[in-house]
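Annex B. Sample input.
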Amino acid sequence: MTQEKMNSDVLVRISHMSLWILLATILYVGGAMLVLLLGDPETAARARMALVMLPVFNAVAFGALLSKSGKAKCATSPQMRAVMDDELRQMALSKGYRNGFFATLVTTVAASLIVSLSGVEKAPAVIMVLVITVGVSTMLASVLYHDR
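Annex B, continued. Sample output.
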């Protein structure tokens, strides 16, 4: 597809696809890091292998995104800038930021209590990975839900 033929619906789908790829990557890395921190040595070795496969996953995902966009420079095009500056997109982003912020607050308190009561080794690292994964995932999922 050339840049002139791309309408706003196609650009919104491309934007959503990139957000889905980012959400899957965050969940993948966060889950693997939690397994590395909480698992036994055998599962930690498997999690390390999963993290080694992350570049392959990203290459396939971004290749699919590039084939969907048709190698057009749609990320820098005025049409994509108009889609990104749309009122509905801005409202979805603000709702996503709000939901991610509150999820981060709740997860921090809940994870701190659970980790301190269960006596987990490496508690600060576990809390950090869990809070970041839940907060960013909530923000991205909320943006995807509220966006058109």
